[in-house]
Amino acid sequence: MQSITLLSFFVVVVVSAGNGVPPMKQRLPKMSLMTLEEYRGRITNGDLAQPGQFPYQVGLSLMFGNQGFWCGGILISNRWILTAAHCTDGADGVTIYLGAIDISNDNEKGQQRIYSSKRYIIVHEEWDSELIRNDISLIKMPVVIEFNDRIQPAVLPKKDGQYSSYEGALVWASGWGRDSDEASSISQLLRYIEVPVIDQNICNSSYSGYITDKMICINTEGNKSTCNGDSGGPLVLKQNGENIVIGATSFGIIYGCEVGWPAVFTRITAYLDWIEEKSGVVNN
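RE: above sequence
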């Protein structure tokens, strides 16, 4: 089995699980303040997002004791956020960034920050941290938020039992994850890539049979990939004017984000019943 890495921002200390899968995290570093022009030269795997371009994108600053960790999330209603179980499992609380591009700027126009305690976090009951199965969770915000041009929910796939594999579809992934394998910290500015979904069998062969039908994979050729710090963030199909969330960032190969290995997401269509049961959010 290939060694894989979870895509939350991770620790340099590797703790190997019993099956050889190394779940890893790292403390959230202090941001270095740079101007937009200074930062442009560092974007190697994607493009800088514009204000309002990804209004469903959420940033999550999670606390575990006195340690902070960074993940992404997906706004799916005026109270609920979808993210990865490996981001939230055991968290004491989370500060939610809405409408943000520059997460180092708390005075950024349109940016809102809301704190949710652990009682508002719902981790999938069958989350398996060793096999990275059912890597999905929900966060309820303590207040109803108002939508605007920078804060809008993504749409869940229609719950009709007839779900596409999305193979070959061009999809959008976004987040504040590392901008290269050499980067030592997450990105200050939101970035995105547009890449195709790949055949499930091809992805499965890359991970030696590790991939299940509850996962979805993207092509990362050309050094375009999700990376550490992007966990829980959105994989979106833009169709008929809608942002349909089809995946939540889960894991990648331990050898790096720029090696051309498929990046793996939790397949949202496999969890529509669970999402409806826990949050009431559904697209009939």
